[in-house]
Amino acid sequence: MYEKVVTRFAPSPTGNLNIGGVRAGIFAYLFARHNGGQFILRIEDTDKERSKKEYEDNIIDSLKWLGLEYDNFYRQSDNAARHEELLRKLIAEGKAYISKEEDGNGRVEVIRFKNPNKEITFTDTVHGKITFDTTELKDFVIAKSFIEPVFHFAVVVDDADEGVTHVIRGADHISNTPRQMLIREALGIPHPEYAHLPLIVSSDRSKLSKRKGAKALSEYRDLGFLPEAILNYDAFLGWHPEGEREIYSKKEMARKFTLERVQKSPAMFDEAKLLWFNAQHIKKLSDEEFSKRLAEYALGYGSTGEAKDEFDRRLVPLIKERAQTLSEAKELLREYDFLARVSVGTNMLLQNGKIEKQTASRHLQAATKLLEDVNDEDFTPEKIKNVIFPYATEHGRGEVLWPMRVALSGREKSPDPFTIASMLGKKETLKRIASAAEAL
RNA sequence: GGCCCCGUCGUCUAGUGGUUAGGACGUCGCCCUCUCACGGCGAAAACAGGGAUUCGACUUCCCUCGGGGUCACCA
């Protein structure tokens, strides 16, 4: 039916792009890419009062961060002349008229559409057949003046001029569809394919909004979320491919995406699951990529990530496994500074009194003896475990391993002592155990 | 209220007339283990209700109930 698919994302710059708002963009993007079509971004800035440049910038930055590259960019206000032209055409043809009315402050003029009062039926790709009686719409307003078209009129004209074949948007637009179709018919423009996405709702089941706690994409970025995870989770709220796999890259989703598998019912946004998606995507990153991301995050965006060498590479795999977000990773980086230095409190060494001083001291000395037999070049977690574990098992793992681990890390929580010992090397390991024993 | 949309575990979902109703997040338990994570195993947990069609309904139809969206010179 269509030579080529063209979809668009048309946000209004009246707020930062949030997790709910961007979803229509994600689906429109995925659909366009799946079909080898075009995806365009149009900033709907006809409301001069509320539109702000900073929001437009936020939208553009957010899309870039997510990786939703668009093939064309439009600003609705740039099409004013075209809007006026068609407004005049409609009036000339008797399909719209200038209406003089009272608005409380005095007489004003608006342009109203002459409603043919007919029944409109369309087949929504996700919902199926939907029918409306447009009589109740009356002669609705399509412009405040020739240079101030109202949303319904502007979208129709722009979508047609920009060649949009598939209008993919939120379900809150379903009831706007009949009046837009009426305008298209009056203008002699063919109807596009409509696909209305189920709404994302907050915990009270109402439409997710800024007021209801929808965070901006830029906030999630600052919180240490990966764009891959946001994209993946947001897409999976209301869509998913066949099979039980959940972790997908942007490319993989584009390959699998069809409107037929889009859900009809609203989906609730669950940050706990987002966190899980994020942790999964972090684990998927290579150590190099992860440390680059972490560097960018920890040092601020705009930094090159060159400073990643400041991070100890030995730490990266450990942190990657433990952190759910880059923010947690940054925290862990600070916590795991034991590679550089360590200071151990006696109390912690004895697990707050759970271990006898003499016992701990004895085990530390035993560990030293055992470790001395391990070659410097063989100082791997496995080898170390092989010599220590039998002894620990025999004498009580807790009483042996806890003091040893704390002696090495200086922390109540840390990776296991074998891993740390290996990272520190034989010399430093023995040194730390000795100084802990001395402290006792 | 009118019109429109929606209704499977708490949440995201699989399911298209015959299934022990499957998976994931979360929760709980166990294992791994010296701690913190990761990981593994397991448990609890759902077809809103009522009719109709059918030999047989989660699956089809109708009604009820429930939830939501929209009724702007905002998009």
TrEMBL record:
Q: Single Gene Ontology BP term?
A: glutamyl-tRNA aminoacylation
Per its record, the protein catalyses: tRNA(Glu) + L-glutamate + ATP = L-glutamyl-tRNA(Glu) + AMP + diphosphate
Gene3D superfamilies cross-referenced by the UniProt entry: 1.10.10.350, HUPs (3.40.50.620)
Keywords recorded for this protein, A-Z = Aminoacyl-tRNA synthetase, ATP-binding, Cytoplasm, Ligase, Metal-binding, Nucleotide-binding, Protein biosynthesis, Zinc
- EC number from the UniProt entry: 6.1.1.17
Q: GO CC terms on record?
A: cytosol
Q: Where is this motif: 'KMSKS' region?
A: 207-211
Q: Which InterPro entries match?
A: aa-tRNA-synth_I_cd-bd, aa-tRNA-synth_I_codon-bd_sub2, aa_tRNA-synth_I_cd-bd_sf, Glu-tRNA-ligase_bac/mito, Glu/Gln-tRNA-synth, Glu/Gln-tRNA-synth_Ib_cat-dom, GluQ/Sye, GluRS_core
Q: Which residues bind ATP?
A: K210
Q: Which residues form the Aminoacyl-tRNA synthetase class I anticodon-binding domain?
A: 293-436
Q: Does the keyword Secreted apply?
A: no
Which family is this protein grouped under?
A: Belongs to the class-I aminoacyl-tRNA synthetase family. Glutamate--tRNA ligase type 1 subfamily.
Q: How does it assemble?
A: Monomer.
* Function according to Swiss-Prot or TrEMBL: Catalyzes the attachment of glutamate to tRNA(Glu) in a two-step reaction: glutamate is first activated by ATP to form Glu-AMP and then transferred to the acceptor end of tRNA(Glu).
Q: Which PANTHER family match?
A: GLUTAMATE--TRNA LIGASE (PTHR43311), GLUTAMYL-Q TRNA(ASP) SYNTHETASE (PTHR43311:SF1)
Question: What protein is this chain from?
Answer: Glutamate--tRNA ligase
Encoding gene, per UniProt annotation: gltX
